[in-house]
Amino acid sequence: MPIRSKPAETKQSPATENVQAKDEEIFIPQEPRYSLDDIILPQATKDQIMDVATYAENSYRVFEIWGFKHTHKYSKRIGVNLYGAPGTGKTMAAHAIAKNLGRKILIVNYADIESKFVGETPKNIRKAFEAAKATNSILFFDEADAILSKRVTNMTQAVDVSVNQTRSVMLMLMNEYQDFIIFATNFISNFDPAFMRRISVHVKFDLPDEECRKKLWQMYIPAQLPNNLDAAELAKKFEGISGSDISNAMLNAAFKAARLHKNELDKNFVFESVENILASKAANENNNAKVSVEKRKVSEEYVKKQVAEGKGTVI
Ligand SMILES: Nc1ncnc2c1ncn2[C@@H]1O[C@H](COP(=O)(O)OP(=O)(O)OP(=O)(O)O)[C@@H](O)[C@H]1O
Ligand SMILES: [Mg+2]
Prior knowledge:
53% of the residues lie in helices and 8% in strands. The protein is of the alpha/beta class. It starts with 13 loop residues before the first helix and ends in a 7-residue tail after the last helix. Bound molecules: adenosine-5'-triphosphate and magnesium ion. Magnesium ion is lined by residues 90-91, 142, 184.
């Protein structure tokens, strides 16, 4: 296979200028939008988040007074990885951690830093670290699996070099960094072990249990809404849905009721809305499921017959 030549990156084409102009705007910290009180989570998960959020204020006690500086590396870097099912509150929790620390949050999405020019993506990552440092904000890599996934070994050479360069730069920047870094991902299994080692705390986000679902329904039924909904009933009736699904189901149901000029939101609208969400999730899972192969012993004649009838190929 011919080795792909490196795309020209030195030429200042209008496209490159756009990428650079975009970079300047991308890494702007923002005020955290959520606090821990806004998130419905099992107490154990909240406790884990609080342990992280209070790390800075307790580090003098732990390292100096309790002597951990003699047994452990006194690092100001703390990597936190929030992982688990989609729509369970990971992004909200990242905001809440920053809020608890009284700091702004600098959100980096992979789409913001990805560049089709070889060598540009690592530069963008470096800019994100620099921007967080300069503004004293909490660095948050959302959709982190895209950046921290395992090293790629079997791609075409130009892509391979670029992807692995991104990993190496990320590892180096993480080593040098002396502050909080938060990651969020749905696919922890894709994480490179080298990154796993550098992230000290991993917090798992599960789909809400019945108790949490009840609180979520209560949270997303507005007080002014005329309705005959029962949060406990909804929590019991529908499993396998996230906080995000509950929030969306409520809004979809309300718009349907409004379109049909109803004076109140009847529970059947919400049931239907959740069922639609569950159906779309099931279809999505089926699509993503690996093809399962059933192995059976068959006679040679059977195989020949199947192949002759066009039902299979010999491999
Ligand atoms: N635990 C929760 N408590 C309250 N609201 C929630 C919770 N989880 C999800 N939501 C609702 O769903 C929305 C999406 O949540 P969030 O973006 O934090 O999920 P996520 O885990 O980051 O999802 P993804 O993996 O898709 O990025 C929130 O803005 C909120 O309205
Ligand atoms: Mg998220």
